[in-house]
Design goal:
- The structure is a single chain.
- The protein is built from six helices and six strands.
- Strands 1, 2, 3, 4, 5 and 6 form a six-stranded antiparallel β-sheet that branches.
- β3 and β4 form a beta hairpin.
- The longest helix is centred in the N-terminal third of the chain and has 16 residues.
- The radius of gyration is 17 Å and the shape is globular.
- The termini are far apart.
- The structure holds nickel (II) ion.
């Protein structure tokens, strides 16, 4: 009964005001093996951005990213096959300096181009591949074109650690997981073994994306 009431209020409030973060919903995290993680997600239209469902989803992305302890989250990871991802990288949270920081950012319909093809390697983790770390090399400097949550076109240049985080997140929108990007699958490790044997290697530390 209480749950029904909350559900009813949630729907009613969404019709009137936005975002309704106090009514955000924690959604089930999809893990490797779920087909939604292997699909190319649908692009959003500006009409979509005005719909209650997508407004609610955008609000939920932030709550879910924080709930699951990620520094990034893509909509397919919570079962929604649309081109929407979020990243929040606090300065000082990683060992690569403040230039890699990014305030909470919503990426809609993102596309990127590589500015510097030189690759850099990090041990990546992923909320959809829990308990594992894998060594992945990706271009170290990219430029991303995307819409923000209001449909305004934006451009972001990302280097170093942030470039890896952005590419990892965008991969989720096209059906790719970081394990697909590994050149040497011998460098796939459980987290405990990673800490025991590779503890000094460049890593996303406790961060998952
Ligand atoms: Ni991920």
């Amino acid at each position: 009964m209480i749950l029904e009431l909350i559900g009813y209020l949630r729907e009613k409030l969404r019709e009137k005001v936005e975002p309704v973060s106090i009514f955000s919903m924690i959604r089930t995290l999809c893990r490797m093996g779920h087909p939604v993680l292997r699909q190319t997600a649908r692009k959003l239209t500006r009409e979509d951005l005005g719909s209650p469902e997508i407004r609610a989803l955008i609000a939920d992305m932030r709550e879910n990213m924080h709930h699951y302890g990620g520094i990034g989250l893509a909509a397919p990871q919570i079962g929604e096959s649309v081109q929407l991802a979020v990243i929040e990288l606090e300065a000082g949270k990683n060992r690569y300096g403040s230039e890699d920081a990014l305030p909470y950012t919503v990426f809609i319909n993102p596309e990127f181009e590589v500015i510097d093809v030189t690759e850099q390697g990090f041990w990546e983790g992923c909320l959809s591949v829990p308990g594992l770390r894998g060594y992945v090399e990706r271009p170290r400097h990219i430029r991303v074109k995307y819409w923000d949550e209001n449909g305004v076109e934006k451009i972001l240049e990302a280097k170093n650690f942030l470039a890896t985080v952005v590419q990892h997140e965008l991969d989720h929108l096209f059906g790719h997981l970081y394990v697909d990007r590994m050149k040497d699958t011998r460098l796939l490790s459980f987290q405990e073994e990673f800490q025991q044997f590779y503890g000094q290697a460049p890593t996303l530390d406790e961060d998952n994306v």
